[in-house]
C-alpha cells in the first residue's frame, strides 16, 4: 500500500483502482498496462509512419500535378478537400502520438522508481541480519533482567512476610509481658498498701512500748483513773495489728519488719524502672516497625515501576523485531518477484537474440562477460537493438504487406510439411538452371498450357486436403473413444 500510495501520489482515481490489491498484483497490473501502452505506442508510430509516407507520396504527386494547372476547378477543389482531410488526420495522429509518448514517459518513471526501490530493498536486506541479531541479543538481555527482578520481588515478598510474622510474634510477646507486668504491679501495689497500713499501726503502737514493765505498772496504777476507754480500744487494735504483721511476715522484731518494708519499696521502684524501660523499648520497636513498613512499600513501588519499565522496553523491542521481520519478508518477496521477472526478461532477450542471429552486424561486438551475468544480458539486448535498427533500415521504403504475405505463405508451406505423415516422403529433383524467358515468351507459354494449375489454386487444394485429413483423424479419435473395440 505504501508503494502504491507513493507511485500514484497525484492520481487519485488510479490509486483507488489499485487500493484493494496487494503490491505484487498491483505491479503485475501496472506492467500489463505498460506493455499494452507500449504496444499502442508502437502501433501509433507505425500508423504515423505510414501516414507520413502517404503524405510524402501525395506531396510528390501534388508537385507532379501542380504544373498541370489547367485542369478543371472541380478537380482542384476535390484535391484541396483531400489535402485538408490528410492534414486533419495528420494532426490527430500527432496528438495521439504525443499522448502515447506522455504515457510511455510516465511508465518509464514508474519503472525507474521501482528500480530504485529494488536497489534500496537489496541494500537493506544486507543489513537486516545484523539488526535482527542485535535486537535478539537485547531481548535476551531484557528477559534476563526481568527474571532477576522477578526473583528480587519474590525474595522481597518472602522477607516481608517473614518480617510481618516476626513483628506479630514480638508484638504478641510484648503485649503478654506488659499484661503480666501490670498484673504484678497491681498485686504489688495492693501488698504495699496493706503493708503501709500495717506499718502505720505498728509504728503508732511501737511509740508506746519502750517503757519498763514496773514503770508501766506504777504508771498504770497512777493513771488508771486517767486513761479513757477510747485509748484502750486503740491500743488493743494496734496490738492486734502488730500481731497480725508478725504472723504474716514471720518476723519477731520491729527492725526486721522495717527492713521488709524498705526492701518492698526498693522492689517497687525497680519495677517502675523496668516498666519505663519496657515502654521505651516498645516505642523503639514501633518506630522500627513503621520504618520497615515504609522501606518495604518504597521497595515494592520501585520494583513494580522498574518491572513495568522493563516490560514496556521488552514489548517495544518485540514490536520493532516484528516490524523488521515484516519488512524483511516483504523485501524477500519483492526480491523473488524481481528475480523471476529478470529471469523471464533474460529468457525473452535470449529468444529474441536467437530469432535475430541471422542478422550480422557491421562491427563485431566482443562480449567478455560471463554468459549468465547481467552485463552479458545488457550487451545482448544492445546487440538486439542494433540488429532491429538494421532490420528497420532494411525494410524502409519496401512494401510491408507484400513481405508479410510472403512470410505467411512460407509459414503455411512449412506447417503443411510438418503435418504430412512420415510415409509421404518428397523426392527432390535435381535443380536445373531456369532459362531466362522474355515477357512475350512467358505469356505465350501461359497461353499454350491452359491445363497447368496456378499457385493460388495449388494453395487452396493443399489446404482442403490438410483440413480433410484433420477432420478424419478427429472423427476416428471420437469413434474409438465412444465405441469399444470388438473382442476377438
Please render the helix and strand layout as text:
Elements: H1 2-7, H2 12-17, H3 23-65, H4 73-206, H5 213-223, H6 229-249, H7 254-355, H8 374-395, H9 400-419, H10 439-448, H11 455-482
Question: What would you note in describing this structure?
Answer:
It is a single chain. By secondary structure, the protein is an all-alpha fold. It has a domain at 146-218 and 225-323. Helices cover 83% and strands 0% of the residues. The protein has helices at residues 2-7, 12-17, 23-65, 73-206, 213-223, 229-249, 254-355, 374-395, 400-419, 439-448, 455-482. The chain starts with a helix and ends in a 6-residue tail after the last helix. Residues 210-227, 429-452 and 475-488 have low confidence and may be disordered.
Please sum up the structure shown.
83% of the residues lie in helices and 0% in strands. The chain has 488 residues and is an all-alpha fold. One of its GO terms (biological process) is cilium movement.
List keywords for this structure.
488 residues; mainly alpha; rod-shaped; disordered C terminus
Rounded radius of gyration (Å):
64 Å
Helix content: over 70%
| Tally of separate helices | 11
Q: What class do helices, strands and sheet pairing give?
A: mainly alpha
Topology order in helix (H) and strand (E) letters: HHHHHHHHHHH
How many individual β-strands? 0
Strand content: under 5%
Low-confidence stretches: 210-227, 429-452, 475-488
Report the mean per-residue pLDDT as an integer: 73
Based on CA inertia axes, which overall geometry fits? rod-shaped
Main sheet summary: none
The separation of the N and C termini measures 70 Å
Keywords: Coiled coil
Organism: Nothobranchius kuhntae (Beira killifish)
GO biological process, one term: outer dynein arm assembly
Protein name: Coiled-coil domain containing 151
Amino acid at each position: 500500500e505504501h508503494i502504491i500510495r507513493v507511485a500514484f501520489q497525484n492520481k487519485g482515481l488510479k490509486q483507488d483502482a489499485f487500493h484493494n490489491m496487494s503490491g505484487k498484483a498491483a505491479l503485475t497490473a501496472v506492467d500489463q498496462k505498460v506493455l499494452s501502452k507500449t504496444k499502442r505506442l508502437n502501433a501509433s508510430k507505425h500508423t504515423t509512419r505510414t501516414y507520413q509516407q502517404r503524405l510524402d507520396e501525395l506531396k510528390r504527386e501534388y508537385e507532379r500535378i501542380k504544373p498541370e494547372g489547367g485542369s478543371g476547378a472541380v478537380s482542384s477543389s476535390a484535391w484541396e478537400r483531400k489535402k485538408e482531410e490528410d492534414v486533419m488526420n495528420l494532426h490527430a495522429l500527432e496528438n495521439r502520438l504525443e499522448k502515447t509518448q506522455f504515457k510511455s514517459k510516465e511508465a518509464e518513471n514508474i519503472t525507474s522508481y521501482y528500480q530504485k526501490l529494488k536497489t534500496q530493498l537489496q541494500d537493506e536486506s544486507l543489513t537486516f541480519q545484523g539488526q535482527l541479531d542485535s535486537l535478539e541479543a537485547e531481548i535476551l538481555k531484557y528477559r534476563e533482567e526481568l527474571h532477576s527482578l522477578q526473583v528480587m520481588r519474590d525474595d522481597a515478598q518472602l522477607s516481608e512476610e517473614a518480617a510481618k510474622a516476626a513483628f506479630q510474634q514480638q508484638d504478641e510477646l510484648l503485649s503478654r509481658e506488659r499484661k503480666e507486668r501490670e498484673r504484678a504491679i497491681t498485686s504489688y501495689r495492693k501488698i504495699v498498701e496493706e503493708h503501709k497500713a500495717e506499718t502505720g499501726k505498728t509504728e503508732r503502737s511501737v511509740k508506746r512500748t519502750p517503757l519498763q514493765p514496773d514503770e508501766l505498772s506504777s504508771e498504770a496504777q497512777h493513771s488508771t483513773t486517767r486513761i479513757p476507754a477510747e485509748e484502750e480500744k486503740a491500743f488493743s487494735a494496734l496490738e492486734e495489728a502488730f500481731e497480725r504483721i508478725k504472723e504474716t511476715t514471720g518476723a519477731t522484731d520491729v527492725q526486721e519488719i522495717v527492713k521488709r518494708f524498705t526492701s518492698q519499696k526498693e522492689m517497687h521502684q525497680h519495677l517502675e524502672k523496668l516498666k519505663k524501660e519496657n515502654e521505651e523499648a516498645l516505642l523503639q520497636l514501633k518506630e522500627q516497625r513503621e520504618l520497615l513498613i515504609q522501606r518495604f512499600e518504597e521497595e515494592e513501588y520501585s520494583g513494580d515501576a522498574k518491572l513495568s519499565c522493563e516490560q514496556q522496553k521488552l514489548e517495544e523491542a518485540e514490536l520493532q523485531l516484528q516490524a523488521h521481520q515484516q519488512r524483511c519478508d516483504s523485501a524477500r518477496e519483492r526480491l523473488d518477484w524481481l528475480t523471476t521477472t529478470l529471469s523471464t526478461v533474460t529468457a525473452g532477450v535470449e529468444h529474441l537474440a536467437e530469432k535475430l542471429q541471422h542478422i550480422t552486424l557491421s562491427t563485431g561486438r566482443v562480449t567478455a562477460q560471463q554468459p549468465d551475468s547481467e552485463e552479458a544480458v545488457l550487451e545482448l539486448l544492445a546487440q538486439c537493438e542494433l540488429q532491429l535498427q538494421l532490420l528497420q533500415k532494411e525494410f524502409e521504403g519496401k512494401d510491408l504487406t507484400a513481405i508479410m504475405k510472403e512470410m505467411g505463405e512460407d509459414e503455411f508451406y512449412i506447417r503443411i510439411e510438418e503435418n504430412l505423415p512420415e510415409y509421404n516422403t518428397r523426392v527432390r529433383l535435381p535443380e536445373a538452371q531456369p532459362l531466362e524467358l522474355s515477357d512475350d515468351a512467358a505469356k505465350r507459354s501461359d497461353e499454350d498450357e491452359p491445363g497447368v494449375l496456378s499457385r493460388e489454386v495449388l494453395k487452396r487444394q493443399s489446404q482442403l486436403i490438410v483440413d480433410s485429413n484433420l477432420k478424419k483423424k478427429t472423427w476416428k479419435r471420437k469413434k474409438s473413444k465412444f465405441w469399444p473395440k470388438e473382442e476377438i
